[in-house]
User: What shape does this take?
Amino acid sequence: MSNAFVQSLAHNFDQALRLLEAALTDCPDTLWATDLWPDEAPTAPAPHGGLHGSAPWFLGYHALTTLDYDLTGEFSRWAPPPPFDDNTYGFPNRAFTKPELLGYVERCRARVEQTLDGLTDEQAARPLPSIHRHHGLLYGVLVGGLPLHVVEHAAQIRQHLTAAGVKVRPMPGDRGYTG
Assistant: This one.
């Protein structure tokens, strides 16, 4: 389906992923594992294994795995790519590096392009299956909202960086952005 709506979605995904890429790139090593919300969401083992928290690497991991997973809509089997398959019930077993997460941004760009290139009206109108956490929601509605989740976490990381005194690049689309 190549229409104005899909082109708009493609633009929104591009901007969201550029923003996340910029936030991860701008994050210095000294803040990579520093929690944004140390009292509410400290990085620590989750109750059933793996790690949960609010460090920039974790927010990037969460945003990307959620995007990657939701692009399938549970209409086909999904598994995170290596090294992100090193998890317990979806919680990572270790901190991921900046190059690993930036590589995942690229993979997600390709997945978005593939998904949007093949999206038909019929596919967009399918309700999500009962095994998906948003079961019953139309697949097109889910896909349309995915850039917002990526932007949310990218913005949180950027705010964390600026509060720590880090100069971040202008947001994608802003004058002076060269990402």
About this structure: The two ends are 28 Å apart (CA to CA).
